[in-house]
Amino acid sequence: MLSVALVVLALVFAVQAMRARQLISSALWLAGVSAMVATLLFLYGAQMVAIVELSVGAGLVTVLFVFAINIAGDETRAMPAVPPWPVTAGFTFLFVLLLGWFLLSKTPFQQAVPAAPEATLQIELWNARGLDLIVQVVLIFSGVLGLLGLLAEVDAPLGGSMAAEVMANRELEMNTEVQSMVSQLSDDQDTKR
Amino acid sequence: MSFSPFNIALMGVIGLLGIGFYGLMVSRNLIKIVVALQIMVKGAMLALVAAGQANGQINLGQSMALTLIVADTIVAVMGIALGVQIRRRVGTLDVHDLSSMRG
Question: I need a labelling partner for A99 at 20 to 30 A (CA). Which of A39, A117, A187, B12 fits?
Fold first, then answer.
């Protein structure tokens, strides 16, 4: 019963994270999802992962999000989705349907290879999945180097012109919208006459 | 279909992956896209642990989920840093505006 409540709460928080207009609210709802998933993991017997998920997923990543939103500033103007909503809803429905059919139509998992009685997480992690640990270390280093490169205070050679181009594109879109409205109005007046 | 703990976890997995997928399609804000990706990864993590538990190999599921957490955090950090830089230099986080740029 508790796991059902946690799953429902995680889904509600995820929907709220997507619906929130402000980025900061979105990040906080995401922390809620992380906390619910961490509790679920704890219930399923994965205590170690639950602790790491709670501290990294709900803690570190949320702090990073809040930090980044404070630096970059929120963009609260409405951004309507590019594809029409029936297309997105249809694709999502198809995705969920296929995933549900794939996962829930199977018979329960068989115990394919019974785990060795002495197999603990430490033995599994260091002996059986040693390569994963090396990959993790490489990932962390590449992530740190990438972050340093991205946050370096160097002016981009095209920085000014890119911003000007975006502003010009926006003005062009607004002008075409205004022109279409004006032409529609004049058409309406012509038909009235 | 019974409501075993494994099936309950699978429903959570399907819901989280579906919501994240919808968010990826609908969102135009770069930070929001990273949030949608994070939601999808949470679903994948839950699936790994639930499958490990159902298979009697919870430690294998845990070790894979740990790798996933590291990779996911790096992806989030890089996405956020990319968003901050783009916002600083271009002045927007809207991927539609970015994709309409030439050059």
Answer: A39
Are B61 and A120 within 8 A, CB to CB?
Answer: no
User: Which of B39, B70, B80 is facing A30, going by the closest CB pair?
Assistant: B39
CA distances from B35 to A66, B14, B16, B20 (A): 12, 17, 12, 8
**Of chain B residues 43-72, which have a CB less than 8 A from chain A?**
45-46, 49-67, 69-72
A27 contact residues in B (CB cutoff 8 A): 31, 35
Distance from the Cα of B49 to chain A's closest Cα (Å) equals 7
Residue ranges per domain, chain B? 5-99
Q: Touching check for B30 and chain A: CB below 8 Å? A: no
Q: Is A28 on the interface with B (CB under 8 A)?
A: no
Architecture of the domain spanning B5-99:
Orthogonal Bundle (1.10)
Q: Which residues pair with B29 in a beta bridge?
A: B94
What total of structural domains would you count in chain A? 2
Give pLDDT tens digits for B35-89. Answer: 999 999 999 999 999 988 888 888 888 889 999 999 999 999 999 988 888 888 8
User: What ipTM does the predicted assembly reach?
Assistant: 0.92
Residue pair B2/B43 in contact by the 8 Å Cβ criterion: no
Among residues A14, A41, A75, the one where a domain terminates is: A75
Give the ranges where A44-158 is alpha helix by DSSP (H): 47-52, 61-72, 85-104, 121-123, 130-150
Domain assignment of residue A168, yes or no? yes
Interface touch A57/B42, C-beta < 8 Å: yes
Domain that holds residue A169: 164-193
Domain boundary among A75, A99, A133: A75
